[in-house]
Write a structure and sequence with these properties.
By secondary structure, this protein is α+β, with helices and mostly antiparallel strands. The chain has 4 helices and 7 strands. Helix 1 crosses helix 2.
Length: 182
C-alpha cells in the first residue's frame, strides 16, 4: 500500500525541529547548496530552524513540511517578511527533499503548496535562486518558473569550491476570495 503525502505548515514543535535539523544536515552532507558548509553540526542546524520556526509562528514565513506517514520527506519555506515596498512579493527558500524520497514528486508538490499559500496572501510575484551546479533548475523550469539570469561565483558549495546561482521568478494570479453564503 502506498502512503499518502501530507503537506502542512510547521511551527515550533520539538518533533519538527529535530526532523528539519536532520534533513538540513543530510542535505548539506549530500552537497545541497542551502547556505551552509559541510560538515554541518546538528546544533547549528537546530539553531537555524529554531529561528526559522519562531519566525513562522510570528507570520514572517511559512515553513512547509511534506510527510510520508510520520516521516519528514521534504520542506520548503515561503518568506513573507519583505521590505515595505514589496508587499506583493514572496521568496522561496530552503527547498529540500530527503535522499530516500527523491524522484517522487515531493518537491513539485511542496512548490505548488508554497505558490498557493503566496497567492492566498495576495502575493503576485515569487522569486528564488538555485545553485548553477547540482541545483534544482530543471524542477523550477518544469514548474513554469522564468529564468532571469546567472551570477557566477555566488557562493561556496558545501564541500568547497565556488558555484554560481540562477535567479528565477514566477507571476501568480491572486486567488479569488472564497464565496460567501448569505
Amino acid at each position: 500500500m502506498t502512503q499518502t503525502l501530507d503537506i502542512r505548515p510547521l511551527g515550533s514543535r520539538a518533533g519538527h525541529l529535530e526532523a528539519l535539523s536532520a534533513l538540513l544536515v543530510e542535505t548539506v552532507a549530500g552537497g545541497g547548496s542551502v547556505s551552509f558548509m559541510h560538515p554541518l553540526a546538528l546544533d547549528d542546524a537546530r539553531a537555524f530552524w529554531s529561528k526559522a520556526l519562531a519566525d513562522a509562528d510570528a507570520g514572517g514565513r511559512i515553513v512547509f513540511g511534506a510527510f510520508v506517514g510520520d516521516l519528514l520527506a521534504g520542506t520548503v519555506t515561503l518568506l513573507l517578511d519583505l521590505p515595505p515596498n514589496q508587499p506583493h512579493r514572496g521568496e522561496i527558500a530552503k527547498m529540500m527533499t530527503a535522499v530516500a524520497h527523491r524522484g517522487r514528486g515531493i518537491a513539485s508538490r511542496l512548490m505548488r503548496a508554497a505558490e498557493t499559500a503566496a497567492a492566498a496572501r495576495g502575493r503576485t510575484v515569487l522569486t528564488l535562486d538555485t545553485a548553477s551546479e547540482e541545483g534544482a533548475a530543471g524542477l523550477y523550469e518544469k514548474l513554469g518558473w522564468t529564468r532571469c539570469g546567472e551570477i557566477p561565483d555566488y557562493a561556496f558549495k558545501p564541500h568547497g569550491g565556488l558555484t554560481g546561482t540562477i535567479l528565477y521568478f514566477r507571476r501568480l494570479p491572486p486567488l479569488a476570495p472564497a464565496a460567501v453564503c448569505a
